[in-house]
Protein 1
Amino acid sequence: MSGRIKINLRSSERYHGVLNAPHRAFLRSIGFTDEDIGKPLVAVVAAWSEAGPCNIHTLQLASYVKEGVKMGGGSPLAVPTLVVNDNIGMGTEGMRYSLVSRDLIADTIEAQVNAHAFDGFVGIGGCDKTTPGILMAMARLNIPAIYLYGGSAEPGFYGGKEITIEDVHEAIGAYIAGKITEDELYAIELNAHPTVGTCAGMFTANTMASIAEALGMALPGSASPTATSSRRVAYARETGFALLNLMELGIKPRDIMTYEAFENAITVLMAMGGSTNAILHLLAIAYEAGVKLTLDDFDRISRRTPYIASLKPGGDYAMADLDRVGGVPLVMLKLLRAGLIHGDALTVTGKTVEENLRNYKFPNVPHEHIVRDATNPIKPWGGIRILKGTLAPEGAVIKVAATSIMRFEGRARPFNGEEEAFQAIRRGEIKPGDVVVIRYEGPKGGPGMPEMLRVTAAIVGAGLGQDVALVTDGRFSGATRGLMVGHVAPEAAVGGPIAVVEDGDRILIDVENGRLDLLVPDEEVKRRLRNWQPPKPRYTSGLLAKYASLVSSASMGAVTLPRP
Ligand code: FES
């Protein structure tokens, strides 16, 4: 198919014509021929790092993508972007860089793709922030692009059941509570994550990979094969080849990432009980795509979408198990049959969602234990709900897929930061009926909304998951379960009501009615807010300080915006 794409190549302005000889000279130095220079120039962006299992293999995948690009008639070049590993940063200062890295990834891709005048790109992601960062760049740059996931790890096995990294975090809580020995904790650590690839449950990485597929930005079925599967190699080649087809058709990301596509993505998120982080990320990707999406869209879609997939942490199965029964296309087929997704939405195959599902080769195996019909759901509503109220006027999120409690009223136990709360749990100071409030961990206050997995896992591991709630302006890991409300906005650092919660105040979490209320008279809250002083920022120089000055509210996806 070489030579089929001849018009409107932006690389022509950089590399063709007499005056561009210096630019061509550098392409020749890396082995390009006249023929290579005449083809569409494709970036294969690998979010690559050896510092963790999630993205360690993406450079290798990039080489297979390049083969596909060449087969399609393009000239590929691999370029990197960064990875901040969430599990390794969890519970430490390092976690403050996690959400920050999402926007950095988008920015580094913009810089490289624009500076080198690439005509299109494939983005290969893995760990949590890499997928949304890549999708943000695709929406922002709006040149032909396809996403490829690096794949999840295979689940581990211990004590007669599948385990994941979530079990190690919860084992820490159980160890602190004296429920397991150090030897048992060590055995869980040894067995939890046995291969390369991302965290094995439907945590944030797998949620975002599923969303990339549901948005139409990744090839059908490409989210679920494990990192170790040979099918991932095939998907890599096919993705490279498909990009050239997309370029020939002239289809760009904003042709695909429409409002309807976001509705599809939210529906799949709710049906799978995916990570609450997806709400932040979808808001941010929509912002880049110029699509007006709000928290109310999530609430509306959640109320009409049945929760049908039994995936960890709310359910029993890992991504590898979902893969064996039909992957994300199986979930989408169930939703299409129920009339809950837009079958006419365009995708990177150049075909619609409905056409893709019609052509997809589903394995003919029993699957009801993992994915149910929409008429026989696990729960009649979606896995995540939006709460608003006097404690969260702009909104907050709760993952109902990971708890059976729909209403909880308790006594506030406020902490100014995650570490204070963790130490209180360690000392056994948190009691049944408490609502642990962790504040100054929002987009600006954290900065970077660190995930509270260490605290939530300690609560669940101590056997308090049914009796203690947590409310924070920070985030949760996709692996979090229990009664946990996050993304409370406005955050404490900008004077949201969460800043003035006092020890012993009553807090009501009412999922059915979508409420998160501080049960303190309005006048008293206003009086406290009048006396409130913002704390000194945690960072005054470097990346985190810059980020804190640019980041917006969690209710807007915590996107970084240029200062007016
Ligand atoms: Fe990378 Fe979980 S830490 S996907």
Protein 2
Amino acid sequence: MDNTEIQKQLKEKGYISEPINPALDLEKEIRRLKKEKKAVILSHFYVDGELQDIADFVGDSLQLAKEAEKTKADIIVFVGVHFMAETAKIINPGKKVLLPDLNASCSLDESAPYEKFCEFKKNYPDHKVISYINCSAALKTLTDVVCTSSNALKIVESFPEDEKIIFAPDKNLGNYINELTGRNMVLWDGSCMVHANYSYKKISLLMQKYEDAEVIAHPECEKRVLSLAKHIGSTASLLVYVQKSPVKRFIIATEIGIIHQMKKVCPDKIFIPAPCNDSPDACNSCTYMKLNTMAKLYNCLKYELPEVKLSDEVINKARKSIVRMLEISK
Ligand code: 13P
Ligand code: SF4
């Protein structure tokens, strides 16, 4: 079933048109429906705080994929973005996987359409493909091994030093791993609209203002921004770092949703969102992640829609690259 058909069904079932009774206690209703339907809620660190707090598990991409693999629940509700829900479906195809808003995409995923990547790959017939998990299921079918920000180094190093590799779709993460390993992987020209937008100049000025502050950054940031960082890592790794560090003030160069967890685990510390180039206030907020709301999550559980569906062919082809990643990152 394609997305148009799904949207049609949503409308027919009142998912889109039915107004939610404002008197409804959404949190209570979500918890009730979740129990009744034996569903598990998996939320990424970038969604709004209330959507993190209602989840059974909150984590980075790798942790969430592992949770999706081992869950015994009948339904997985992925409060994150589309490629994450697709990954859950691929590794646990027997489960119903729901995503509160099917439009929750990712600029990296969008930067690498299947047909364009097929053409690109033809130029490198003897190269292996490592794909960052932030890409479509279709792209994963063309991939040898998937990686996430937390295991990219390990995955790349699992290949012999002289192996020719295409790394897609994030050029910033690819470039960072090239520098760490001294390799020369061919990079697809994609980037994250949030992380590629942090301003080196403005962060440097903030560092002058707060001399006690440490910059910590996600590897999707540009090289210049990464050069300012004391610690570089996945969202989960950044969270662990702020807990372990004796430092009291941090400049956070990743999506602001993670600050919700940072404040929870370190209420006495100060977290300053890193400023961006074009400086609208919400620049470090991922508009795709923020499509998730409590109302959509409630409707999603109530109607069991929208459901993420993939053909058996795509599941079987894409699965190998994800299973390989999970094996290597054990
Ligand atoms: P993590 O795997 O580090 O959570 O990153 C996901 C993501 O989308 C970063 O922009
Ligand atoms: Fe994609 Fe960037 Fe949003 Fe992460 S923050 S989901 S990479 S658009």
Protein 3
Amino acid sequence: MKEMISVVVPLYNEEAVIDELITRLKATLEKIGIIYEIILVNDGSKDRTLQLAKEYCRKDNQIRLVSFSRNFGHQIAVTAGLDKAKGNAVVLIDADLQDPPEVIEEMVVKWREGFEVVYGARSKREGETFFKRVTAKLFYRLFRKLTPIDIPLDTGDFRLMDRRVVNELNRMQERNRFLRGMVSWVGFRQIKVEYVRQPRFGGDTKYPLRKMINFAMDGLLSFSSVPLRISSGFGLLCSFVSFGFIAYGLIVKILFPNYAISGWASTFVAVLFIGGVQMVTVGILGEYVGRIYDEVKGRQLYVVDEELNFESQ
Ligand code: UDP
Ligand code: MG
């Protein structure tokens, strides 16, 4: 059977980068000399991304397009691309050229050596804010501590996956998708190729702080129940402390009956403290319950508005 490779690119308001992206992707794939398809997933862009992507599809039937009815988010866009991809290997790459497409060549070499997952590891990050670099570093380290999943440090979604891995991912129908964790969960032989993360080629980041926090929460909560255990831990701690106070109260009452327990302040503090712990605990519980609710509804992950060039395969 002939080898084919699918490249999946999520696009959200990426009109500034799409030309350069396609030029560099095609150059790399031609150089590798493999049959390929490029699957563009338009995640409800509000600029000219859709229009430009359609023009490319008209000119080139190796370029395909899935266009969503609205913005569903990066991880869902990638999921749609994985659903559609036909290749024996699938490469995920961001549109903004922070991950240089040229690295794909090296990934294919490793894949042909027999590795099922070849992930890009950022040896250096250029053109990203100090804040982003620090929070990303902290997050990956926290993730490793809190979950049984070993996601390699400092990797994103830039990676090549063998068909077997993609088939397993496609079986995972969960809504809160943290793909890099899911890929690690699947296992198989995984290896890294290092690259220097470039500054964005054009446009702005599509991950404002709010989305980053949500993404981080999804990642942690869908792979770890440690936060729940931490809240139980707090509960236990509070109980022990209160037992201590009860014992103290009783002893004082029995041994020193005339000694009045003054200490409204400490009572007050204890009430507030326990109240606070309870609220936090309920909040953490709520995060899980909300996600469970999301999952049990079992809605489709995304709604497709248009597809182009898939029938030509
Ligand atoms: N993206 C998307 N939907 C979104 C947000 C982002 O498809 O709701 C795409 C975006 O077009 C890009 C990739 O996801 O191809 C990564 O986004 P970005 O580069 O803005 O994230 P950052 O590198 O700043 O973390
Ligand atoms: Mg980026």
